[in-house]
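Example protein
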Amino acid sequence: MPYSCQHGGTCINSTCVCSRGYKGSSCENESLEILYLRSSKAVFREGNEVLFESEITDNSNFTVQWSRDGVIISGILSRYSITSSAKANGTFLHQLRISSVYERDEGNWSIMASNGVTVVNKGIIIRVLPKLVLLMIPQYDLSIETKENFTLQCVVVNPGSLINLTSGSLIWVKDGKPLLTGSIFTISTTQTSTILNKASAEISDSGNYFCLHSTYPDPLNVSIYVNIIGPESVEILLFRISDSISREGKSVWLETEIYEIIDLTVQWFHNGNLITNSSLRYEIKSYTTENDTLRNVLNVPNVLQQDDGDWNITASNGKTTESMSVYLRVLPKLELQMIPQYELSIETKENLTLECAVVNHASLINLTDGSLIWFKDGKPILTDSGFNITTTDTSTTLNKLSAEEGDTGTYSCSHSAYPDPINVSLYINVTEPKSVEILSFKSSSSVLREGKSLRFESEIAFDPALIVQWFHNGKLINNSSKYTITSSITSNGTSVHVLQIFNVLLQDEGEWNITASNGKTSETKSIRIQVLEKLKLQMTPQYDFSIQRGEGIVLGCVVINPGSLQNLIGGSLIWQKDGQKILSGFHINTTNTSTQLRKSSSEIDDSGSYSCSHSAYPDPINVSINVNVTEPEPIEILSLKINKPLLIEGEAAWFESEIMNKSGLIVQWSHNGNLITDALSRFTLTSSTTANKTSLYVLNISSVVLQDEGEWNITATNGLSTASRGIKVQVFPRISLSLTPKDDLSIQTGEVIQLQCEALYTDTPAYSTGIKLNWKKDGKDISSDPSFSVSEAGTTTTLYKSSAELTDSGRYSCSHSAYSNPEDVSVYINVTLSDKDKPCPCQHGGTCINSTCVCPVGYQGRYCEDEYLEILSYKSSNSVIREEKSVWFQAEIVGPVGFSVQWSRNGDLISSTASRYVMTSSKTANGKTLHVLTITNVLQRDEGYWTVEALTSSKTEARNLTVKVLPRLLLQLAPQYDFSIKTGESINLRCVVINPKSLTGLSDGNLVWKKDGVYILSDFGFNISTTNVSSTLEKELAYLGDAGRFSCSHSTYPDPVSVSIAISVTKPEQIRCADDKIEKIMWKSTIAGTTKKESCPENQKGTATRYCNFQGFWESPDLINCTDVSLVNANEELDSIIADGTTKNVDEAVNNTLVKMKNLTSQRSELSAGDISSSLDILEKIVNVTNMTSANVEKEAFFAVVDNVLSTNNSKSWTAVSDKTEKDASSLLKNMDRMSEVVLKKENITTSKFKGKNFEVSVDKTKVDEKGIVFPEKTEKTPNDTTTDTEEYSTFLELPKQTNKIEKPITYVAVIYKTISDILPTDSGSRTEENSNEVKEGKEKKKKEFVNSEILSLTTQTDLGILSPPLNLAFQHKHENESADLQAVCVSWDFITNKWSEEGCKVNSTNNKRTVCQCNHLTNFAILMRPYTPVRI
């Protein structure tokens, strides 16, 4: 029986041999395959032709697309030619030809084939080397006189174009003949440049000079005409053109008339390139007129775009040359682009929109009227034909909101006034839509336990455009390690879609949906799944353990998650030992979720593995532990020893005992029956484990006393057995020494030195052999010094010298050798000159030589009594410096001991705390001092005179140096921020030097442009107009390749200073956000999915950002970085104080800043997030500056600013600051505490009070051991009174009179914050404005921590330590606590963890309206409402 082979297949031996393009047992399936993809070569140079070929096998119903790096290539573009043809073997040959390859064509080229079912593709990578670009300097024809010097230079602009050239160099050609190095010219050549020079030009040197590369494969060159003016001149009478503006494809002629003279040569040039008759595109004719002139005509029959530019005629007789030129502008041929570009199939009632645009606007120049018009099937489409047509000069849109089947046809677009018939067309097929139908949706189970597998299956009517998505609780599900999504086609033509979950988790519970859509209609079905928890058991203890016989066994087992027992009928927790259920011998106490196994006295056979499980749980889940019961062992003290049996009073001693290791061992030391512990300062008890696993116990005695004599014992016990050992010790008194005289003495030269030393307690038996006494002077032995004599008598020794000298001054000591650490007694003897030996009275360390004082450095006078101070030299590393460079000042100074050095700038003293300045000093070899001030980062304000001053108590020396600071180059780019445009729109960039003074000292150079790091030259398609301080970059028509980062810099500025902007160039159809004005900012159109930057609104500094989402809609602007100008200026002024360390006018600067902030924050009903963020920075810097310089800050102004910033009107801005920065209200709390510390450091503190809307401050003084502190001041009520409080101050603190004695009154700062609790972070950064509502909503929402009171703070001048009695604090709740699930907690703010802490505080009493706390320390306090969590037993 033969097979039924389809699609022309042949049945041979019961097997179908399929036609090319089909496969399957019956040839029923289409087969699509790309046999190969190849290019004419792998590496090309710009301008070469490229050919891609691909052979594809399939039936005739497939489409092919070419693309480069993912961008689809259209055959309508002039550079590309796309063809396809059938081959004899039944395959199809597809070719893409690029007539002239560009550098941007480098990349991955691919071909994709699709037959509606299968899509296949192949790719190939080609490399494009840039076309050689040569630059001739000078660029234009040159005319000089004879004997003048002329020099030509030729440079390779893009050295990358020479890649793959193994040899060759730049060469010179004059009038077609190569110029050699040995000729009359001097030629200097490198690989990328060459210079041609002749010192004295001659008439014969006139001519065309060409520069080219000898091995470059294409004939590329640059040329210049050099005219050496001679005695005979050539005259061009006439030079004209038929049409100075022409269109591509038209004809143009140029005509010139010249006086005919001998040896006359005429040449035509276009943009510097010689034109000859050998070119097929040009016709050159010449003839003599009736008045003996020579007429030359150049005819261009088919003008192309590259003919645009300068056309020159040059006439020369070998001696003189004349040239004239005209400019021909060639308008490009009209190019139209239709969007979409390819055949379109839509369904009825869908929107039909076509757009037609002029790709090259310049092609419409000189057309006085006309517009783009639409045709359908060759007939014009009128505005009343059911279509909406919107037309501009360069684009038109055709739209119909609801398409009909009759709209099927070919649509074309052309320009009514364009002289040539040029149009683009597109075929549109309109068909009826098809609905989506989900036939079934089911799951393997609706209720299952954690860890099981779950399968969803849905059958859907087949639709080729079908898109199926899975959702869980509204969230899209994709293929992952957890989810497996598959689909298949059934035999009846439906599609089956399966979602498999192999390990179900609790979070998989809920609603599961499947949604099917074909882009026109959709359907959704759902199933609800319940997931039960997996049983989790925990045993106590958790790890194996070992006990001794007779000890008790207690084991506990708990169900951690009782919800896992849901749906179980009956059952309980059971115990097993070694796999057998325990029925007797143990006491078992069991509930549904816990069980305890107990035995008071264990036996050896109780050893085993104990496990716990649930009898009704379907899976075998248990926990187990191994218990080992052993026999108790006796305790053995292996040894007890002492370092020596006879001890001397004052020596150190140790006892050491080795004991066998036992569990639960307790070891004690005793002396004469008295227990020895570590609490006694002389004793140290240690223990360690030896290598043989015994325990070594050591008792160290730091200094033995006589009472330590007697019996010492060590006792060891483990509760079951005890062992003890002892040792007897004898203690002898310590030998002491007596020295005569006992006190230090002073003698004069020539007097007697006599010292006597006696040893006491020498009858100790341990030293019956005698004691040796030794003498030392300043630690060195002098017993053998011949100038001294030593005599001994029993236990006494005498040191004697008959005539003392000055060198005999020193400390004399006597010691004995009885101990290893010899004790000594000493006396100091000071030997002074006798009156007869005294020298001249030199002061300040001067030396008397021959009755004359030789003074040290820094002193002068007869007796060195006068100070000498002089700045020997003062210099700087540079007198003219650019901003942000470093500079140093160096002063060499000679002066007395202790003189000081000060540095100042323009009279302002420089502090050593300044961050920008480094001050060092060092001694020179000749005793002078070298002082250096280094400025690491010079700023404009450093300009002026710098002074170094050397000061003593009576003298001052100063020297000055003047420094000029050149500002750092500041460039401004307009526009400032990255932007995007469409293809065909213009690019206009302007770069300006804001501060021209920064260019001082630069002899040349100008502003230059780069794109993606590469210099932009004038022939790159951009127009560049440049002066010394500004430059403009323009391009009339942008294309996709113009996208990139453009930067502007100065060519000779010594530092790499530049500004840049990224420009994105997109296709017109790409989704964008339209221009929009909001928050006084014009937001220019940008690409969807990007963030746009713009300058902040007027009177603000910074950058605003706004996100354009993927749907092309703007989101709300982000102005977090926008700050009021006055705040920015104040911030910068404080930065300069901190950076420079200048102390002049600090008070004025700080207080002026506070006044500005006070005015700004009080005048506005609501501060922006940027202003709050900047205010926090400024307040922190004010505290830093005040602390650093001891400035007198106006407290009232500081407090007023804090009060304004804490206004509840700023709640939204505070939220934005917390969300988008690392700052929050705790930084304000911290800086208030630091300001309190600064205030309390002042010597003359005045009491003051500040009462604002949002917080109050009191600075006062009291003696806290006599009178307590109450704040805010109250009458009658006490904090312990929790009755209803209607008084104005229902929240207050009271520090009772302290028991610790305080010598004098102390100053304190007390604060109450009324609103900061609403913006201060609690747990997990939650805000109380969100969580306070949870009190009112009850149990419907999950409770979180939140602050439910105002905040109280107390800081004292003296640290009071642990308060006794404690601080009392009464808080009225901001929200009445009517929920049993919330409990009030007394807390204080911890600045280290940036969280609330309960440490040191407790709740004294509480009700639903009020809580009273007691705390044993001072800081910031509040009430925190915390969810109540009952403890489960």
Summary: Confidence is low (pLDDT under 50) at residues 1282-1289, 1323-1342.
